[in-house]
Amino acid sequence: MFRNLRVGALGAALLGAATVGGFAPFELYPVPLVTLALLIVLWRCSTNRMNAALTGFAFGMGFFLAGVSWVYVSLHDFGAMPPLLAGLMTLLFCMILAAYPAITGYVYYAMGPRSALATLAVLPAMWTLTEWLRGWLFTGFPWIALGYAQVPTSPLAGYLPILGIYGATYATVLTAAALVTLSSATREILNKNQPRPALWTLITHHSSLIIAVTWLTGYALKQIDWTEPAGEPIKVSLLQGNIPQELKWRGDKIESTLSAYRDMVAASDARLIILPETALPLFLHELPPSYVEELAAHARANRGDVLVGIPERTDARDYYNSVLSFGSAPNQTYRKSHLVPFGEFVPLKLLFGWFFEVAQIPLLDFARGADTQQPFAVAGQEVAVNICYEDAFGDEIIRQLPRATLLVNVSNVAWFGRSLAPRQHLQISQARAIETGRYMLRATNTGMTAIIDQRGHVLQAAPEYTTTIITGQVQGYQGATPYVRWGNVPVIALMLSLALAGGWLAQRGTGKIRGSSTS
């Protein structure tokens, strides 16, 4: 039994690691359908609830260790944390994340893994609910939610403007579950020792129909224009300064950084010029007034504005991760609201105060900006600004919509080094563009700086680790997708209904598939 448990856990971990192939930069969106289907088979072969939970945990460990290994890079390479401690913290973090698929496996087995209702109703709903919970609990970590693997090319991306990224997650798991029930019923009829059961016809027809309807509906939804152009296109420039993270905050490099960005701004004739997160490594009040005026004067000469990422200190001695606008419009400020735990603030300082001493991360205790802030009225558009990690939270991005006509994300992904994170982050931004029906403009320090259209397609992207200016025409959009109007409420309500109703019916014995013990 223990040998089989170890083999099953190893297989589940390998499946979890392989699932990362569905995400950027690989973008093989059918891969998660296969790996999830095989995970469901392992769950159906489990001997008890705890075994199913351990299988889910192993899958989660493989998935997150492969998918978010860049956490170690941030802590060790750029946070100067000792290798052993950085490795232990990364492992602990992945163990916490792996608890969510473990919970899903436990509940699924409890509902009866050979029940059609448990497989087709409870399991997809439970996976989606636990994934949403992961994106909310303890400030949330929605990175590489399963739906992102379908962005932007898969037909399942069509669900984003209605149900958001978790709608695509649900459609993905539902497809995998239907493939398993279809395969299971097919194996029964191929068993020569059993007559063709009437239930086989019912399940195979239903499973095939579920797959067809799910994918054809997604494809049809992708053809809909949920928003419409607002105003004339404008010319934008996105600046990628490529300042090495290890040099960014050094006192002897500040002048060269300021000069580099000043020259890049001066080289652009765009109406909207965007600098990355904390592009200028000084507090706003420490910048020479002449420097600010030079940026603003150039923006006014272009009949537009420049958006600058810079830390900002208030009279209360709090400091914020901010973006400020200078130029033709009145000066405006956005302050980052959703901060990164252990990256921009340390939670429970009485318990984790030691982290200040171990991690050499500058500006480790930012204050939070307001939850609700207004879009910038700049360059003839209403621009919803978000900073770095914030664009992983779709229900927070829509706070500035439908008023905003453009989305802007400024980031400093130099913290992640040459890992999967920059391209994963780009895919996250593509999802926000699809959900909202807006262009997303990304200005980053080292990559991936990009212009993304309202359908999630990357129109232009800067190579990583290059000093580059991306310039292009972008179109503002107005109107509200269903997701902009309702956020995650519909998908969560739907998942709760499916999980409760399916679980109740499955426990009453409805929809059980009797047959092969290995199906």
Can you characterise this structure?
The protein has 17 helices and 14 strands. The protein is α/β, with parallel strands linked by helices. The protein folds into two domains: 2-226 and 486-507, no CATH class; 228-480, Carbon-nitrogen hydrolase (Nitrilase/N-carbamoyl-D-aminoacid amidohydrolase), CATH 3.60.110. The chain starts with a helix and ends in a 12-residue tail after the last helix.
CATH class of the largest domain: Alpha Beta
Q: How are the strands of the largest sheet arranged?
A: 6-5-4-3-2-13
Global morphology: globular
How many structural domains can be distinguished in the coordinates? 2
Helix content: 40-55%
Mean pLDDT: 90
Give the beta-strand count: 14
Supply the key terms:
single chain; 519 residues; alpha/beta; Nitrilase/N-carbamoyl-D-aminoacid amidohydrolase; 2 domains; 6-stranded mixed sheet; 14 strands; globular; disordered C terminus
Summarize the structure.
This protein is an alpha/beta fold and 519 residues long. It has helices spanning 2-19, 31-44, 49-67, 70-78, 83-111, 116-134, 160-190, 198-222, 245-248, 254-266, 289-301, 349-352, 354-358, 394-397, 421-436, 482-486, 489-507; strands at residues 228-229, 234-240, 272-274, 305-313, 319-327, 332-335, 376-378, 381-387, 406-411, 440-444, 450-452, 458-461, 468-474, 477-478. The chain has 2 domains: 2-226 and 486-507, no CATH class; 228-480, 4-Layer Sandwich (Nitrilase/N-carbamoyl-D-aminoacid amidohydrolase), CATH 3.60.110.10.
